[in-house]
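Chapter summary example: a protein plus inosinic acid.
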Amino acid sequence: MGAVVVVGTHWGDEAKGKLVDLLAQDAELVIRYGGGPNAGHTVHVGESTYKFHLIPSGILNPKTLSIMADGMVIDPATLVREIETLQGVGIDTSNLRISHNAHVILPYHRLLDQLEEKLKGAGAIGTTGRGVGPCYADKASRVGVRMGDLIDPKRLRERLTAALPLKNAILTKVFEAEAVELEALIAELTPLGEKLARYVCDTQALAGEALEANKRILFEGAQATMLDIDGGTYPFVTSSHPISGGACIGTGVPPTAISEILGVVKAYTSRVGAGTVPTELLDERGDKIRERGNEYGTTTGRPRRIGWLDGFALQYAARVNGLTGICIGHLDVLAGFETINICVGYTKNGVLLKHFPAGDVCLMDGCEPVYEALPGWPEDSIDNVTRFEDLPANAQAYVRRVELLAGVPARFVSIGPRRDQTLLTPNSPAPAQLFASPKISLLTEK
Ligand code: IMP
């Protein structure tokens, strides 16, 4: 069996959690490979709604091992809260595993995130303020504290003793904030470490064993392609690698283990935070989509910016992620528009661009979207549909156009938040088959 990666194709909030939750029914391991409490996903099961920031959505399936891998940054207080909330509603968390290599978001990371944003003024990124950027910065500067340190009092003291002089110099001298006191910080972190210790282990080894045993692995991406620190709209990006390659970097699983890479595409574009969105709708059409799609951040509650689907960005996402299929979500939200625009390219200074201007947001300056107008479908015409073939013809045509732009098959179409509102497209294999990859024997095994 192989591994399936689920990634967002644009600026996040594509409802990856719903697809992950669906695929997790057939997965033996669900691994979150990057990001931290900046992510937020809502999963609906029956009448209940669960909001997660850190824990992989696979936790709802008791047969699945849910792994928070090396590439993640973890706020231990948030994680303990999530675990206790889940336990409080009767969900078993004993199948959770946390990498000892994952970095810990410390209170001073959150503080620095907010202070830095304030100092940047008009140039602020619009971060979630959860300390994600400063934590990854410390990881790269090799002054980070990892989960393996958090659960070991001696190592925790050593790591913090090494980091604090530097952090306190910045806090007091640059920001004129109060210094962090070592003993108080240790006293705050120790009980959290004690609560989390039972989950912390070598998750690289676990994933390696699972591959050896031919198990089905699902990688749950957080954030999305355009927020990737290298491939996204820098500097308006997050500090990790949400693209499919990040699934290998953040877990120790090799690229050769991956059999399927599914891009989750919202039927329109949304983003939170600053940065260019060429297809942004600043009129009542954007407001209508925002209200119907309940486009308010799961993590910060901020209203999301809304635009027509950026198919040019989708083509880029298909390329950099190596997508093998897409899942088109929120199709129901577009019902009731007479005409739906879809961006099929950009012009700059009147010239049609050959490639998506990725990597730096300034390359997008002056880019104008080129639209194709597609006919819409009536309000309410999608409610209660249970087969792709029963969608209005124009909705099916919209899906086919998006598929053509992506250049890979549309496998699922989502028409509402509930589990049963996900339609499998004709010709798509059953979800379990997505994990199948040919196992080639060694010559010596013949
Ligand atoms: P940070 O990840 O909190 O540093 O924020 C950096 C940028 O990424 C900001 O524009 C955030 O709004 C955005 N961002 C981070 N996580 C998510 C997410 O899960 N969904 C959508 N946007 C996100």
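Key point: Residues 100 and 201 are 5 Å apart (CA to CA).
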